[in-house]
Amino acid sequence: MNYYIITGTSKGIGKALAEALLQEEQNYVYGVSRNCSITHSRYHHQPLNLSDIVALENNLHKVFPVLKNAERIVLINNAGVVGEVAYMGSQATHNFSYVFDVNVMAPAILINTFLSAYHTENCPKIILNISSGAGKRPVDGWSAYCASKAALDMLSLTVQQEQLLLNSNVRVFSISPGVVDTAMQDHIRDLEESQFSEVEKFKKYKNDGALRPPEEVAERMKRFLENYQQYKDVVFRIESIEQH
Ligand SMILES: NC(=O)c1ccc[n+]([C@@H]2O[C@H](COP(=O)([O-])OP(=O)(O)OC[C@H]3O[C@@H](n4cnc5c(N)ncnc54)[C@H](OP(=O)(O)O)[C@@H]3O)[C@@H](O)[C@H]2O)c1
């Protein structure tokens, strides 16, 4: 049986990915988010607020259960937030800790626990972190988000390097999904130009039909997970994943 532990399964990319994986009989999905919107016999939901680090630490044993007859165990750190969009100098200071808790601290804690909890499992183990192009270029107003995704990329690179040195059966990836038609993009289009100079460009993406449907992104990610051995890089964009 293949086990997938996925954060942010209540909507957007995480929900589409969980539903795509559940199409295969051998796949079991353990989802984590504040809300639950999937009902399926092979889906288990753990309600958790990933910005509440104490609650996360107290509930780690529920996120990583004992898994029987595992042929593959996958952790997908998908949950993410843009947070308050504002220039540095005019944003609430707690915004940085909020964005970093969800986008960096929670993934780091989950990776650390995943590696120790399933240390003795001999099956292949995969850690897939959902990053962003915003971690590779500066976007005005998004300093917390850009910095958090850059941190997630470096966390991924470092963990993969350690696992290589340990000669383990763990692979780590950090993939940018492109611009996807989800609630996160709705939030971005609602911003004022004074908060974020690129807002018109993002509105145009929507009007031009340039946003990817989350289901298409999920299918690509599913395909990637089926063929992950052929990918050598840790950090890459979704365009590198072959389409059907
Ligand atoms: N959409 C894009 O264009 C785009 C582009 C680049 C990268 N990404 C990345 O792709 C990932 C998924 O984004 P999306 O567009 O699918 O976003 P979305 O539609 O806003 O969904 C975000 C998911 O994360 C969960 N989440 C947010 N805050 C949480 C918290 N405090 N505790 C637990 N779960 C939380 C939400 O669940 P609850 O609200 O139920 O808790 C939801 O299931 C993110 O990491 C994002 O940075 C997206």
Automatic annotation (TrEMBL):
Molecular function terms, GO-annotated: sepiapterin reductase (NADP+) activity
Pfam families in alphabetical order: adh_short (PF00106)
Keywords on record: Cytoplasm, NADP, Oxidoreductase
One cellular component term from this protein's GO annotations in UniProt: cytoplasm
The keyword Oxidoreductase belongs to this UniProt entry's keyword annotation: yes
PANTHER family according to UniProt: SEPIAPTERIN REDUCTASE
Record protein name field: Short-chain dehydrogenase
Taxonomic path: Bacteria, Pseudomonadati, Bacteroidota, Cytophagia, Cytophagales
